[in-house]
Specification:
CATH superfamily of the largest domain: Periplasmic binding protein-like II
CATH topology of the largest domain: D-Maltodextrin-Binding Protein, domain 2
CATH class of the largest domain: Alpha Beta
Distance between the termini: 43 Å
Shape: elongated
Strand order of the largest sheet: 2-1-3-8-4-7-5-6
Strand content: 25-35%
Largest sheet: 8 strands, mixed
Order of helices and strands: HEHEHEHEEHEHEHEHEE
Low-confidence stretches: 8-21, 228-249
Number of domains: 2
CATH architecture of the largest domain: 3-Layer(aba) Sandwich
Number of helices: 8
Structural class: alpha/beta
Number of strands: 10
Mean pLDDT: 82
Radius of gyration: 20 Å
Length: about 250
């Protein structure tokens, strides 16, 4: 069934008011202290230019997606690009809000200067549910998962894994908080992950408006020497996470 028909049917079933009549949009999110504060700041600025205020509803990752998909909220703060392919009722605002790099981190000095692609004979660990890491970990001799970065670090310290795959900012937070572990990143990054904002299809009219505003923000940042260049390359002089050219906190 074409997406526009699906959206129309869902809107009729849910019986919610049009986005044009709203001055407040409710967006679901899940606890992600690295990405969410940056995405929230950027989107608040963009929506303010439309005269709209956003409210965040923090839920579990799956519940946040289901509530937005079912129209119980107006959209999702940020998700991976393929979300709109998996869930037709969620429309992607086609400007990346957050660009995050996934890196391999280790505490083994003999691995310094080597890339993760050369080290498939080693043991690797990553956080449960990190889809980017599932693909990146294929081919390693052993693969382990944990629920938290701290658990993963303990496995690294104990020698149960040789490498841990983490988002760059999460890994650097560990390096800052626990310098005695001597953890360091391996370059190049395993993957660059782009996160997008999604709106429920009843708010479809807002999508092109928001895309235009986000592009305008990018132009402003380019003029200030920030943001991606004309080829779409994102500057990262300190190799940290960037959101529309703004370094992560």
């Amino acid at each position: 069934m074409p997406r526009i028909i699906v959206c129309a049917l869902l809107t009729l079933v849910i019986l919610v008011p049009s986005a044009f009549a709203q001055t407040v949009l409710q967006l679901t999110s899940f606890r992600e202290p690295t990405l969410n504060p940056i995405a929230e700041e950027v989107l608040r600025q963009a929506y303010e230019r439309l005269g709209i205020r956003i409210e965040l509803i923090e839920e579990g990752a799956q519940r946040a997606l289901l509530d937005a998909a079912g129209g119980l909220a107006d959209g999702v703060l940020v998700r991976l690009a393929e979300t709109s392919q998996q869930i037709p009722s969620l429309l992607r605002v086609d400007v990346p809000i957050v660009v995050s790099r996934a890196l391999a981190f280790t505490n083994k000095p003999e691995l310094r200067g080597r890339s993760a692609s050369e080290l498939h004979f080693l043991k690797v660990g990553y956080l449960s549910g990190a889809r980017y890491a599932i693909e990146a970990s294929k081919g390693f001799s052993e693969v382990w998962t944990t629920d938290t970065p701290e658990q993963l670090l303990e496995m690294l310290k104990a020698g149960r894994v040789d490498i841990m795959i983490l988002g760059e900012e999460t890994g650097r937070r560990i390096m800052r908080d626990q310098p005695k572990t001597h953890v360091f990143p391996l370059y190049p990054p395993i993957r660059e992950v782009r996160f997008y904002h999604f709106l429920h299809c009843r708010n479809a009219a807002l999508v092109p408006k928001l895309e235009g505003i986000l592009h305008a923000i990018l132009v402003e940042m380019r003029q200030n020497g920030n943001g991606p260049n004309q080829q779409g390359d994102w500057p990262s002089p300190d190799r940290r996470l960037w959101s529309l050219g703004v370094p992560g906190q």
